[in-house]
Design brief:
The chain is α+β, with helices and mostly antiparallel strands. Helix content is 47%, strand content 20%. A 4-stranded antiparallel β-sheet has the order 3-4-6-5, covered by helices on one side. Strands 1-2 form a two-stranded antiparallel sheet.
Length: 192
């Protein structure tokens, strides 16, 4: 697959299915009037059709608002982890997500990880991911992004691995460089 032309940080967009997966499906029944109002104030109006894409800084701000409103009594990292799990479940209820998850279940964890770069490319206009196999159930993945949401990406990838049938998935961020931005994760699991 041809690498994408680098997208400047200020032009990075997340696609509607990601936003829909979390806000309309993953948080179904948990969107309080206050949360809805706070999201509307920053540019995500849940009373109108969602836009085709949203700027990444806005989306990151929305994630923080959702954690503050939905998990106010939890430590920030725990809130982001729960949010990521809800996001993966919700994304699986979108039209695109149902199709993607159907394929993920058939692939199994190893091939799912090998396809993660393509899967992630479908969620926004900028993500590039490179994989390095460290063993049959261990991969290192470097991405061209860094999100200020502790535990979120780790829990997101763990939940995705579970969709693919992985036992005991574990994801650890082993490097982050916010200046570039980039993040590197170690993905592990055991076979069923």
């Amino acid at each position: 697959m041809t690498p994408r032309k680098p997208v400047p940080v200020e032009q990075r967009l997340v696609y509607v299915q990601v936003v829909e997966g979390l806000l309309q499906h993953g948080l179904h029944g948990q969107v309080s009037p206050r949360l809805k109002q706070r999201l509307k104030q920053v540019g995500v109006d849940l009373d109108r059709p969602l836009l085709p894409a949203y700027p990444v800084p806005l989306w990151a701000h929305c994630l923080n608002i959702v954690v503050e409103e939905t998990y106010p009594d939890l430590p920030r990292e725990e809130g982001f982890r729960l949010l990521a799990e809800a996001h993966v479940q919700g994304y699986g209820r979108t039209v695109i997500g149902r199709a993607v998850y159907g394929v993920m279940r058939l692939l199994g964890p190893r091939r799912l990880v090998q396809r993660l770069p393509q899967t992630l490319r479908a969620t926004d206009n900028y993500t590039e991911a490179e994989l390095l196999e460290r063993g049959p159930t261990t991969y290192e993945m470097r991405m061209n992004s860094a999100l200020d949401a502790p535990g979120y990406a780790e829990a997101l990838f763990e939940a995705m691995l579970r969709v693919g049938g992985a036992e005991s998935p574990g994801v650890t961020r082993i490097h982050v460089d916010a200046s570039v931005p980039s993040s590197t994760y170690l993905l592990t699991w055991t076979e069923r």
